[in-house]
Specification:
Blueprint: H1 3-29, H2 34-67, H3 74-96, H4 99-102, H5 106-128, H6 136-176, H7 183-210, H8 215-244, H9 248-267, H10 280-283, H11 286-307
Helix pairs in contact: 1-7, 1-8, 2-3, 2-7, 2-9, 2-11, 3-6, 3-9, 5-6, 5-7, 6-7, 6-8, 6-9, 7-8, 7-11
Length: about 300
């Protein structure tokens, strides 16, 4: 493991962690327009697709072929690694990160809170007028008592799921930064993850605030999410540097696996903008959405071609 390669992955990880934490703080201090949020999310989706299909998977295929002396096993190894990455993210989404059901629109949460407050005021007024109905006060108090536990039940699965996603992002960055790969690959993966993490961090903080968690607790969840990718990237880089022994097969198969995870996140996983009160389609035009998706898809390939693959 060269010192320059290690410093390279550490510097990228630190920048990514700081940027992710900074983006997540935006909902705590100011509001971001729905249109800007939707555009950023759409661009990040295109970048993930472009990075997976235009850079990561082709590089993984090339490395696998270069390191495998048995041509008849190429298709099996390539297909199995991509499918395993895709299936892994599917299992994470199904059993660890059911945030499609937990990331509720903020407007719905506010309405729910307002209903509770209204019930309390009405209950107090009825008591003053001698009109208290049996069980009415108990019902309002019970709603308040259950509100904190309900908030935690929504917040922790959401945070855990997104932290697992962030760990996989770090894995992809660490593998793409190995010495046997060109600097273009790690830069493209770094750029795609960076732009993808911004709307994800925004959605995380906004959703945690919507569950009525205090800002200090939201920052703690955000910090864990922001640290997950840098830590995973550095550990993955160290692991494969010490165990790979320069074998391209050790580099190719992890790249194909991470390419499969990117494809799942970009094509199946519900994008952060769709968890906002208004969907992407309602906040940006079809033309803008199409343009941003195509721009994101072809940008990684173009950058990689300009910088060179280094093979």
């Amino acid at each position: 493991m060269s010192s320059s390669g290690f410093l390279h992955i550490v510097s990228m990880s630190l920048v990514m962690g700081a940027a992710s934490f900074g983006a997540g703080l935006v909902p705590l201090s100011s509001s971001m327009t729905k249109s800007h949020f939707a555009k950023l999310s759409t661009l990040s989706t295109g970048l993930l697709i472009g990075a997976a299909l235009g850079v990561i998977i082709p590089e993984g295929v090339a490395s696998t072929i270069a390191g495998d002396p048995e041509p008849e096993s190429y298709s099996h190894k390539i297909a199995s690694c991509v499918l395993l990455g895709f299936a892994f993210m599917f299992l994470v989404e199904e059993y660890i990160s059911p945030h499609a059901r937990t990331m509720m629109p903020q407007l719905e949460i506010r309405d729910e809170v307002e209903d509770v407050q209204f019930d309390i005021v009405l209950d107090e007024l009825e008591r003053e007028e001698g009109m208290t109905l049996p069980g009415s006060h108990a019902s309002a108090s019970q709603m308040l008592r259950h509100a904190p536990s309900s908030s935690l039940q929504r917040a922790y699965p959401l945070s855990l799921g997104l932290i697992v996603h962030a760990l996989v992002d770090g894995y992809a960055l660490g593998v793409s930064s190995l010495e046997t790969q060109s600097g273009a690959l790690s830069f493209v993966v770094f750029l795609a993850i960076m732009i993808h993490k911004a709307p994800t961090a925004l959605a995380l903080t906004s959703s945690l605030l919507a569950t009525s968690l205090p800002p200090s607790e939201c920052k703690r969840h955000l910090l864990l999410f922001s640290l997950a990718t840098p830590v995973s990237a550095i550990l993955s880089y160290i692991l494969y540097t010490h165990t790979g022994d320069g074998n391209n097969l050790w580099v190719g198969t992890p790249l194909l696996f991470s390419g499969g995870t990117f494809l799942y996140v970009a094509t199946v996983l519900k994008s952060p903008s769709e968890h906002a009160p208004s969907s992407t389609q309602e906040t940006i035009s079809k033309t803008s959405r199409t343009f941003l998706l195509l721009l994101g898809m072809f940008f990684p390939f173009t950058i990689s071609a300009m910088l060179g693959h280094g093979h």
